[in-house]
Amino acid sequence: MAMARHRYSSAPVMEGLPLLGEPGFWAAHLADLCEGESPEAFGVDGADAGAMLECLHDTSAWPMFQVPIEGGFSIVVHYTSGEEYTSTDHFPVHPGSPDVVMASTDQDRIGPGLCWPELAAILQAPDGAVGATDPHARLLLLLPVLGDSAAPAEAVGAVAEALISQGAPDACEPLARRLLGGHPMWGAQPWTFDVDERSWICDGEHSPRQTPLGDHLPPYWRVELEACLGAEPHA
Question: What is the 3-state secondary structure (H, E, C) of 90-150?
Answer without folding.
Answer: EEEECCCCCCECCEECCCCCECCCECHHHHHHCCCCCCCCCCCCCHHHHHHHHHHHECECC
